Automatic annotation (TrEMBL):
It comes from Gasterosteus aculeatus aculeatus. Belongs to the small GTPase superfamily. Arf family. It comes from the Eukaryota. This is ADP-ribosylation factor-like protein 11. Keywords: GTP-binding, Lipoprotein, Magnesium, Metal-binding, Myristate, Nucleotide-binding. The lineage of its organism: Eukaryota, Metazoa, Chordata, Craniata, Vertebrata. May play a role in apoptosis. May act as a tumor suppressor. GTP binds at G16, L17, D18, L19, A20, G21, K22, S23, G63, N119, K120, K121, D122.
Length: 174
């Protein structure tokens, strides 16, 4: 029996700029493999089983500029927002910061915990989480639970830990 009904599995929405690595990250989590991905048009969705009792439904929403206007349609029943940034691309952090602030201002996300994943930490030029946290102005979001963690979708580093933390954040916020 042991299977959890997917309707009770909390919805987690994966957002971020295009090329941040969201689809690679989701594929790696679900299959354990590195999968060639192309830019997401619309969304990918999968059920992630963390342990016997805990699973999350993870929505990976396309990050290209043309897609961002539709992001709010994925926020119904969202229990945690996972915002993925490319930690090796400092030039795009101001854009990421604006996009994050805008999505967090959505009424549906009031009080919803935030996990920022600093992806591509396997690259030599990647920024550390303190630099990214400052660039994204995370301290200003004192009205919600938030965490930032470094990870590498390509190498599979830090992914499971991050999603275990997300599960804990959801439990704390309920």
């Amino acid at each position: 029996m042991g299977q959890t009904d997917s309707s009770v599995s909390p919805q987690v929405v994966l957002m971020g700029l295009d090329l941040a690595g969201k689809s690679t990250l989701l594929a790696r989590l679900l299959t354990g493999k590195v999968v060639e991905t192309s830019p997401t048009v619309g969304f990918n969705v999968g059920s992630l089983e963390l342990d016997k009792k805990t699973s999350l439904t993870v929505w990976d929403v396309g990050g290209q500029k043309s897609m961002r206007a539709n992001w709010r349609y994925y926020l119904d029943d969202c229990k945690a927002l996972v915002f993925v940034v490319d930690s090796s691309d400092p030039a795009r952090l101001p854009e990421a910061q604006k996009v994050l602030k805008k999505v967090l201002s959505e009424e549906k996300l009031r009080g919803v915990p935030l996990m920022v994943l600093a992806n591509k930490k396997d690259l030599a030029n990647s920024m550390n989480i303190r630099e990214i946290s400052n660039q994204l102005d995370l301290q200003s979001h004192d009205d919600r639970l938030w965490e930032i963690q470094a990870c590498s979708a390509l190498k599979g580093l830090g992914l499971l830990q991050a999603f275990m933390s997300i599960s804990k954040l959801i439990k704390k916020s309920n």
